[in-house]
Amino acid sequence: MHSEAAERADFSGIRYAQCWEDADILLDALEPGPEKDCLCIASAGDNTFALLTRKPRKVVAIDLSPAQLACVELRAAAYRRLQYSELLQLLGSRPASKRRVLYQQCRDCLSAGTREFWDNRPVLIDAGIGSVGKFEHYFEMFRNRVLPLVHPRKRVQELLAPKTSAQRIEFYERCWNNRRWRLLFRIFFSRRIMGRMGRDPEFFRYVQGSVADRILSRTRYALTELDPAENPYVQWILTGSHNDVLPVALREENFETIRAHLDRLEWRCCALEEALNESQQYDCFNLSDIFEDMSADAYEQLLRLTLKAARRGARLAYWNMLAPRTRPAILADRLQPLAELSSSLFARDKAFFYSAFVVEEVL
Fold it and tell me: pLDDT, tens digit, for every residue of 45-83?
């Protein structure tokens, strides 16, 4: 089976310098543990390292993009060589003036190809390696060019301040959700602009309806029903920093556990189809949102291939952003949707731009 994404999308640069999927709900969905093997879409690596906090037997991270795997490899080196505060500085979660010095401390842990990749991009090191993807630049443009046309910095800080649920709703409707916010949001997060500046245009091939309206609705949910004061993704989008709110892999209490279990992690540049055709069997599959850019037929074929590599009781977790994908009825005897768990976890999802979170269990 060929990879539909590999044939069309561009994987030459860093598309995601962070993982924009909530690892808290991912861990609760997959329940990785010491007797389990995990297969993970790598992206920038954050959720790959989050899996290590549960001490699984093995984590295999795969990606079609050598640039994304360069992000993973440098993070792994940073966990090995740096102190916790230095890791946050290298990533850009904390201010730093000597990130190249930190990189040099990690450099001899890198493979030759990854050393060459980062040696040739010192400006990316200076910026903080968690801020340099296409998607992060897209949010940076929103933060620096669009948001100031709608709300002053003081109001942004007010939005991010702790509030009760009722206070958040009242603030959003009275102070935030004005006509200019809705207009500029719909323009900036339209299919055309997002495809050109944020995600690859091919990722919208199977999307129907208004992209911007769906994301606007989810944004309201994140700023009212959820608490932006405790949301690392909202914090970064609106301020360019995680501030004191960090995703799973960057929390101090997880640092030593991740460092101690790096020997259980491996990564490789390949399509999911290739990894699934190997002899390894898995208990946990973090499939990110890879079904977003493939047809319903290709999705079904890939699910069938996943089932061949899955042990009984294995769990699959993946996100829908705009293209709806859930287990087809023809696979009902082999794969069971965990609808109640999916719904309860999605209600907590801090990476708010997705339209669904899907958890399924192999029968």
Answer: 999 999 999 999 999 999 999 999 999 999 999 999 999
What amino acid is encoded at 255 in this protein? F
Instruction: Give me the residue spans of the domains in the chain.
Output: 135-239
CA distance 93 to 236: 9
Give residue 218's identity as a one-letter amino acid code: R
Kindly provide the residue ranges of all beta strands, DSSP E only, lying in the chain, ordered along the sequence: 37-41, 58-63, 265-269, 282-286, 310-320, 335-337, 356-362
- Count of residues for the chain? 363
14: which residues sit within 8 A by CB, 6+ positions away? 44, 65, 67, 68, 70, 71, 124, 132, 133, 134
Question: Cα torsion for 230, 234, 238, 243, to the nearest 10°?
Answer: 40
- Give the tens place of pLDDT for each residue, 138-165: 999 999 999 999 999 999 999 999 999 9
Residue found under tokens 């790598």: 42
